[in-house]
Design brief:
The protein contains 18 helices and 24 strands. The protein is α/β, with parallel strands linked by helices. Strand 13 (343-348), helix 13 and strand 14 form a beta-alpha-beta unit.
Length: 569
Amino acid sequence: MTAFERYQQWLDSPRVGEQDKEILRKMSNEDIDDAFYKDIEFGTAGMRGIIGPGTNRINFYTVRKATIGFAQYLLAKFKNARERGVVISHDNRHMSREFVFECAQVLNLMGFRAFIFDSLRPTPELSFGVRFKRACGGIMITASHNPKEYNGYKVYDENGCQLVPKKIEKLLKIINNMPSAIDCDIPLYKNAGEFDILTYKLDETYLDLIKNIQINSNLNKKDFKVVYSPEHGTSFVNAIRIFKECGYHVYPVLSQCAPDPNFTGTLTPNPEDPNAYIEAINYAKKINADLICITDPDGDRVGIAARKRDGEYRIFTGNESGALLMNYIFKERERLGLLSKNGVMYNTIVTSSLGDKIATSYGVKTESFLTGFKYIGDRIQYYEENRGPDFEFGYEESYGCLISPFVRDKDGIQAILLYTEMTLFYKLNGLTLDEQYDRLEQRFGYHTTITHSITFKGSKGHNDMINLIDYIRRNPVEYLCNHKVVKYNDYLNQVSYTDNKVDKINLESSNVLKFIFDDGSSIAIRPSGTEPKCKIYVEAVSTSREKADMYEKALFRDFTLKYNINLNE
């Protein structure tokens, strides 16, 4: 069925409301193509898309279909699924609360108990809530850091972890065998399920566990100031409580504290974008703050900026802040005799190699996974059940990390507390964060990393993106900037090429390519699992910061020129 045929089907359906039909009638041909060329899909972080009518959009119809499918998946897996129930939470987005009630109503009509919070809560607390209530699953309505037009839908297993491919494939099989989103009927159960509002006890337990992750809780906090922004999202209440109850002097960016689906007070809610820090930096300069922490709207990721000797602020990338925090945690745990002799650190295949080097220096193993924190959460559970290595730390280049696994997703509140403690610790030892980071690079090499995103719109854009990656796969790069590729990883076909040797990659199949050069630098490319974008990850390793910065730019330039990649897509 073509995009236009699907569009006409929605226009003709008596199930589609007049308000949605009015929006449909005003669509351009380009809008119709983008809204109907496919069914919205579950990607690396769930189902995410623009709010509005259409098969490739987030709306009551697509949310209802996903929830019916998820409920049927749970019924097939657990005999007592209805009694155990599902925990549901949401962020600050347009329609988030309405989608939560839609999910709860569907579940109730299917006989499930549905637990919801009294208001918005961050994603990591949803993960904890599933574990706290011993529910059989969870749903988080969120679009993370995406623009205001977006919303999304994540599903969690009984361990509070997002569904990994082996689990989500079973869910997708159920969903793919269902009628179209506008034709789905809720299969009614003989007895409607209960509807429960979660109490403050869950919040208190979650925050108490976070306070317990402190390593050096008794540091002198007298002359230490933190500026904090929740970027209009979910983390304000939890973050302020943690700061104050742990004795830190916190100064919130008031213009960005109220939950606001339009993100009125910020240029972007994404901590990966330097524009997200503008207001916080201006405020920090006025009060001479030591540290700036920013959480993304659903509260699972944190960006930091720290004051330098000259009074300016350095914004750290997710790779840099993750490496700093890991080194601090491992060093202090080692000093206190708390570092496991059989420890493991988790990251992703596009995370900087600096973290691997730091972990190795402490005798901690590294395991790398595909992009998506669900793989880390799933491996934590696997090793707990099979007496594997002890979890020490997990992080992604995209500003997410986990310190203690009572949550099975990246946790912004945990990260805030330890970033703050770390910065204070180094200040009391006469170091700024940028000075400490320079010490790490002097020891392990200078690593510059950057992620470039190229947008592809509509069905043509999607096909162009896939064709580009397929072309690169058929014509892999051998040299760039006078450096030879010594390893080429094709994660779709699950093979790794080194010289004349071919090895199997023991990860799930994913459309990612990675080229590793003879000096440890690398380039990876993949289609985004949550946005119509192609992402290119570049890491340059050199003997100085200046050389690494120049080298990174040259690698990206030569790569895009080689494959004629249009950066203005």
